[in-house]
Specification:
This protein is an alpha+beta fold. It has 5 helices and 16 strands. Helices cover 17% and strands 36% of the residues.
């Protein structure tokens, strides 16, 4: 049976790009590891944030559309994206959220204390302590490695058909069902990060794509051959899968599961240092070869952005 290690990345739609950079780099302390464009809509940024090494399981990516319509979080989407921090770091994050006037709720889920809050544009986020996952050695402002976000804890999925989504996670993606409580079913993959998936056990109203919503969730494939094996495996399970698409930093295939959530399976290699040095990743706009001749025009059309130390 095939098994994914867990989440590769999560991609969301947000508003003004500088507000996005300020929140994820300046407040949450993630590294902006890549600034490029949406290959299908080159007048829009595609911004990537993660740990110092831009490791799979730490990467959140954004299509920032300033002044666009606000979306509605609902069935067919990732409802909440969860981040994991080292044991003992939660008080730091409580203080940090308060410092930046970010309202949060402290809740108990499956025996864990979780901080639940929204980003600048309405995305639902959580921070939870766990031992799993390597320490993130990136430092910005007051966010130091002993408290820094290590990567994804996981995600909560809102499904139009929760039973079918749960079956897919278990029987096709190879996650293990580990618990069920308070209206959620918890699954776990074998990886040490991005490995805990909660499915809301009941459906509600359909989500509407727009600012403040997740566009898709991507799962990890070890390499190109593993991805082709996944493609065949998912197709045999009754899902229509796209051809392989070259995203420069990984290859991708997509399918919409029966609960209407868009799934991607992305390769771990080649990674984000393929077109710029590891030490300077994210510092300048990187374009795929087919758009390089339009660089000057694109740079004029995109909002200027910078990573700012907000402390």
């Amino acid at each position: 049976m095939k098994k994914t290690a867990g989440i590769h990345h999560i991609t969301a739609i947000v508003g003004h790009p500088q507000e996005n950079v300020d929140f994820y780099a300046g407040i949450l302390g993630l590294r902006m590891v890549k600034q490029t464009i949406n290959f299908d809509d080159p007048g829009t940024y595609h911004l990537y944030f993660g740990n110092k090494d831009a490791s799979p399981g730490t990467i959140i990516t954004f299509f920032p559309w300033a002044d666009s319509k606000q979306g509605k979080i609902g069935d067919g989407q990732v409802g909440t994206t969860s981040y994991v921090v080292p044991i003992g770091a939660l008080p730091f994050w409580e203080n940090r959220l308060e410092k930046f006037n970010i309202v949060f709720t402290k809740i108990e889920k499956f025996g864990e204390t979780t901080l639940h809050f929204e980003d600048t544009h309405g995305l639902q986020l959580e921070i939870v302590e766990r031992e799993d996952g390597e320490q993130n050695s990136w430092t910005i402002g007051e966010v130091t490695p002993d408290v820094a976000i290590k990567g994804f804890g996981g995600a909560t999925l809102l499904s139009a058909q929760p039973d079918k989504t749960a079956q897919l996670l278990q029987d096709v993606m190879g996650l293990e069902k580990v618990s069920e409580a308070d209206g959620f079913i918890r699954f776990r993959s074998y990886g040490d990060i991005g490995n805990v998936i909660d499915v809301k056990a009941t459906s509600s109203s359909s989500g509407e794509m727009g600012v403040g919503t997740v566009h898709h969730i991507a799962w990890r494939a070890e390499d190109d051959q593993d991805q082709l094996d996944w493609k065949q495996h998912v197709e045999k399970s009754g899902y229509g899968v796209t051809p392989v698409k070259d995203r420069n930093y990984f290859n991708a295939i997509y399918f919409r599961e029966h609960g209407e959530i868009l799934f991607e399976i992305a390769t771990d290699p080649p990674g984000f240092a393929i077109d710029e040095a590891h030490a300077t990743m994210g510092e300048k706009l990187m374009l795929p070869e087919q758009y390089e001749l339009y660089r000057e025009r694109l740079q004029k059309s995109l909002f200027p952005i910078e990573v700012r130390n907000l402390d």
